[in-house]
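The authors assume throughout that readers already know how a fold can be written as discrete tokens. A single example would do more here than another paragraph of explanation. An entry of this sort, consisting of the sequence and the corresponding backbone structure tokens, reads as follows:
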Amino acid sequence: MYLKKMKKLLPVIAIFFSTFSTTACSENLTAQMNKKDVYQAMKHVSDWQWQQFNAETNLFEGYDKLDYMSPTAWDTHPQGWVYASFHVGMAKWAQLADANGDESYFQKLKAVAARNNYLVAPRIYNADDYAIGQLYLDVYEKYKQPEALVPLKTVFDIILNAPSTASLDYKHIQIDANAKADYTAEAIEGYGGREIGITPCKNRWCWADALFMGPPVWMHLAKVTGNQAYFDFANKEFWQTAELLWDKEDHLFYRDSRYFDLREENGQKIIWARGVGWVVAGLARMLEHIPNEHPQRGKYEDIFKKVMKRLASAQQDDGFWRPSVLAPERAPFKESSGTGLIAYAYAYGINQGLLDKQEYLPVVKKAWTALVGVVQPSGKFGWVQQINAGPAPVLASDTQVYGVAAFLLTGTEVYKMLDK
């Protein structure tokens, strides 16, 4: 009963909080799609984000209360997925800035990687814990330091020699031994003073987010090292997950198996914007590393085109995708992380000739205007749904570094498509 009442109040709450939100863009920041303004928008957001960084801890710490998840939580460990996804977007921006004569962002990433000792986090089979390997690959491509890849190759070789056979069915281990569940055991492990939950299927890619965190790293490492085994593993595992989470009727992706039979109040499936955003952004990143002659490349392109075609019709008039893609009225909030990931995929697809520019450029323009519109005068990137596994309320003040990553990924692709 309480949840039903809260759902009915969400539109009112959204309007209430939006009236108290900070004014979005500074006077000098515009959503004009020209190289100068797009570059300036990315620089403004990047510079604000780095101002919050503590180089001694490798953590972003300079936040207002409640703006950011506790630095003692596992997700926000410097080698966890939150930071890993940030570095994916930051590396794209660093490459663009470097091409324009500013190597400072790459230098920051190089220093972060060195302070991490190029290590992944401890759950070596979990994509959340080795997604940080993308940072080391990007640093290696720039500076050619062999030590940057040693730990990543060691971990991936272990996985190749003893691959997980866990089911892709999403279930948590329960703490309460009396709880009715298929798994009953101690659910929390410790690492560096942080608590780590255990979900057996996460030894493989059983959730949508993992398709951004995992396969691009494997495929990129295959390209850098010439070891085809890394690519073959990623290709095999990707399709097992994609075929499980792919909804053949709506051409969208579920977040994980728990959502197959759940429905919104309007009868629609629960399709999470950031969840499907992780998938399409992950596909874009994978397509960077899949050879044109690979026999399955066409299959990747086909599923990419299908989901992008479907998502276009779900974009709202203000340029955003709502947290619940097929039930925008359920959580009628601007949500910038899912929107950014999806917009990046559209811009990438256009630039690569995979998506028709005439058809999809208006989608990108609306999304870019929306994303620039949540940048506050300081450069803080707002309206980012907090860490979750499904649609949830969002406030103007909410930020997370994976939202910044999505903005930078989109911006770098938008920049590429512009003539001037």
Q: What stands out?
A: The radius of gyration is 20 Å. Residues 81-99 form the longest helix (19 residues). Confidence is low (pLDDT under 50) at residues 1-24, 179-187. The longest strand covers residues 188-191.
